[in-house]
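User: I'm writing a short report section on ligand binding and want a predicted complex to refer to. Could you take this sequence and heme C and write out the structure as tokens? A short remark afterwards would be nice.
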Amino acid sequence: MMTSSPKFRSLQVSAMLSLALVLLLATARAGAAQEQSSFTFSEDIAPILFENCAGCHQSSGIGPMPLLSYDDVRPYAAHIKRKVQSREMPPWHLDPTIGIQAYKNDISLTDSEIGRIASWVDAGAPEGDPALLPMLPMLADGSEFHLEALLGPPDFVVEAPPYTIAANAQDQWWTQTTPFEGLIDSPRYVRATELKGSYPMGVKVLHHGHVTLAFENEEGRRQSRPIGRQGIGKGGDLFPDDTGMLIGPTGSLNWNLHYFPIDEEVPNESALAAVWLYPEGYVPEYETVGEQRFTADRGGDMPWAGDIVIPPHSIKVQQGVHVLNRPALIQSFRPHMHMRGREQSLEAIYPNGRREMLARVDKYNHFWQITYEFEEDVAPILPKGTVLMITTTWDNTADNPVNPDPRQWVVFGQRGVDEMSHVWLGMTYLSDEQYERLTLDRNRVASARDDR
Ligand code: HEC
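Assistant: Sure. The structure tokens for the complex follow:
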């Protein structure tokens, strides 16, 4: 048995006293925090969730649970705090500390909104007065194209041949070629495009897809233009002001649709692509070629698995470069990797050697295929000779929460468990004269800003 000297005993007593004091202080402080955070669901939290989460977290949305009422939200409070603090929700995976930060479609929460949610959850997620609840917003159910709200009905819609997606299977691909004719009479400039699965089930199973229109231009050269690219979390493609994509009136549509089975058979799914045109005869100032693929891997022209080899339990980095042989404006950035993908960045190395990080995602998640659309006053304008450098980081360790099996060697391939490494960039190639004018305008705005 341990004997204790009087001195030791008094130490013990004082230790106990100070422990009691600490506990007392802690309780007092917790009480104060509870008083301090007077945030309630009805008044402070519902407005944030209705605006930023409800669109997906509703019965016909892609979110796994509705977040439309206090009863919906309460059981998830702690989970919601974690997901918004880690900036996984709303899905917006850009690194907020580097690169361009102004995006047209930014859906991230502000620090103050995240702070409000966190202190509300810490204070026990009180409901407050239900009479103060804001109205639920109008929620789109996926039956319409996203861009319809902004642009009205599309000028035409093309439909993929039907395909039945099995209930339980690996990823599935549907590639088909269909004729394109009779929808427009002459070459036309496209203002916006959008691809989606059919409503209600197709929207849940289409993970991503592409429809490209192959046609001959007026000089008889074969062209290929995307008239719909879809990915979960990506809306339509609305080109910047006075920017259009030229398409011809006859050709063929190449459908490449990638489905993720959802435990329920989806019979005869037909994806739809909508196209909005500029008025007949209108020639926009800038001609875009839409979203184009820039690879870091060489998947297209290498033997499969030729250059992606990721050992088990490892982190691997790969870089690829492309030299611009014409000046260009980049209107959007969409990273693409698979389940081991963690980070991807786009840098520019200018002809004078200056190197600039344009955009970087540091929380990539294969489930999402988000297009980051640069605000028009910051969209990169790059001179001829710029080197675009794409850096991919894969995480094949157990720390990657979506890694199906860190013991596997991973190589290039189409399936989600194989890997890829490319970015989709919304490209508008510029004439020298357009490049000069745009850079002058940009510099003028910047120096006016600096003078203020
Ligand atoms: C663009 C659609 C979309 C938006 C906007 C969105 N979510 Fe989600 N959310 C999803 C999807 C899909 C999942 C499941 C896949 C995933 O976790 O990435 C999910 C998952 C979650 C989860 C994890 C659920 C679970 O059981 O693991 C939480 C919590 C969550 N969302 C909260 C929010 C909150 C809070 C907001 C708004 C601040 C929000 N989400 C905005 C689509 C969305």
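A remark for your report: Residues 1-17, 19-35 have pLDDT under 50 and may be disordered. The radius of gyration is 26 Å.
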